[in-house]
Amino acid sequence: MTSSLLRPPGHLSPATALQLSQQAPNIIKNSPGAVTASAFSSLFSAPETPELWTIYENLLLSCLRTGDEESAHLCLGRLVNRFGDDNERVMALIGIMKEADATDDATLEVVLKEYEALLQENPTNTPIVKRRVALLRSLGRIPDAVTALTGLLDFSPTDSEAWSELSDIYFSQGMYGQAIYALEEVLVLQPNAWNIHARIGELLLMSIKSGDQNDSAKQLGEALKRFCRSIELCDDYLRGYYGLKITTTQLLEDPPKPSKQAESDGLSPPNLPTLQKLDGLATEKLGEITRRFTAGERGWQGFDEAEIVAARELLEKSSSTTVR
Amino acid sequence: MTWFSKSTTTFGFLLLAHACYSAYEHSALQSHRAASLSSLSATQQQAASSSLPLDISLETIVATVIITLGLVLNTAKLRPIQWRVWAGQIERAGEEGARSSSGEVDKDYVGNPFKLLESRPGFVDIRKQRKEFAEWVKQQ
């Protein structure tokens, strides 16, 4: 169980978060609250590990999420004790705590003012800049959030997390072109991130659906390539195969006219036999993954239940259309 | 497989201990004989006593090989070094894939390291998470 405490808890299900925060009083009781600096007493106490402080940080976030403020304050107190309240990361955690405690927008404005005051002192305090962006976004002031975020990227263009957040903000506003551009920046920094490749493919598909682009042949071709790359980087990647299946189905059902520009870019969709082969491969792999997951086979249980259900529905839909 | 490797290692150590004991006994016997011989005739050569018999040397070498074999057999399963295989294992098996034989998840297991690009802990919207959690509790 402690292994999931070593990772940031943002993506955990509510049930897991609840379970983690229920363990919090126990963990706090059993872990050392402070590590002494004197060499003599450190001979008798347990050695300090970096994991301890990661656990406190993640426990703090889980407790805040589930509303266990008492444990959260204990965790934060220990972190402040160890690193001081002028540590950038601890400053951001204090900010999160204040945001969580705030009951109305006026209090949040005060927190925002505090962030701005901190940034006056040190404009490159990355965790605080990120908190400010998150708070602005949460208050619904999207343009301000984008400005702050591009400011962050100006002084720290290698922050892939920030690029990814920028893409998500653009996506929430329906600006697919910018969102895809930001994700391409992430890929420049993390070329092996298979989930980002799949994400770009998904964004391309969504932008075709939204219909504001006219060159759908080129976009479908590119989405196909993105999904293929994500599968190339990761065996049995359910999300990649799902996207591949959707793309090939669309291309086979309604083959777009090859445009000259797409051909010159090398982004035109492949020819029919290749498409059919890809479609067959995706169907076969999706079938294998859903079958083995449902059979409870060992080593195949890491998939998300909801994703498996979606894959099965997609397969049933496609098989019913072929029968007709 | 573990009982096999463990018994192999134990057997190797037994052989090694036996070889050491034999070598010790051999040298003790030799020096005793040399002492008794030199009391009889002081001119006797004792160069031959310094070398170990062949079977003790062989036993030592064989014991070392067997111990090494046992230890190598006992090592954990190798991790995949191909990117796509490694990534596929993470996606397919999750934590299960990093579990050792004793059922503990590896300490350095991080799951998909690029998941952070989608969950983005630095930009966490704690108020939204709290709201969602409260709704989830109500549904339960």
From TrEMBL, chain A:
Keywords: Endoplasmic reticulum, Membrane, Repeat, TPR repeat. Pfam families: TPR_EMC2 (PF22890). InterPro entries: EMC2-like, TPR-like_helical_dom_sf, TPR_EMC2, TPR_rpt. One of its GO terms (cellular component) is EMC complex. The keyword Ribosomal protein does not apply. Residues 113-197 form the EMC2 TPR-like domain. PROSITE patterns: TPR. Residues 252-274 are annotated as: Disordered. Residues 254-263 have a biased composition (Basic and acidic residues). Transmembrane segments: none annotated. The keyword Repeat applies. It is found in: Endoplasmic reticulum membrane. It is a peripheral membrane protein. TPR repeats lie at residues 160-193. Component of the ER membrane protein complex (EMC). Belongs to the EMC2 family. Part of the endoplasmic reticulum membrane protein complex (EMC) that enables the energy-independent insertion into endoplasmic reticulum membranes of newly synthesized membrane proteins. This is ER membrane protein complex subunit 2. It comes from Apiospora kogelbergensis. The lineage of its organism: Eukaryota, Fungi, Dikarya, Ascomycota, Pezizomycotina.
UniProtKB/TrEMBL annotation, chain B:
Pfam families: MMgT. Residues 1-19 form the signal peptide. The keyword Membrane applies. It is found in: Endomembrane system. It comes from the Eukaryota. GO terms for biological process: protein folding in endoplasmic reticulum. GO terms for cellular component: EMC complex. It is a multi-pass membrane protein. Keywords: Membrane, Signal, Transmembrane, Transmembrane helix. Transmembrane segments: none annotated. Belongs to the membrane magnesium transporter (TC 1.A.67) family. This is Transmembrane protein 32. It comes from Apiospora kogelbergensis.
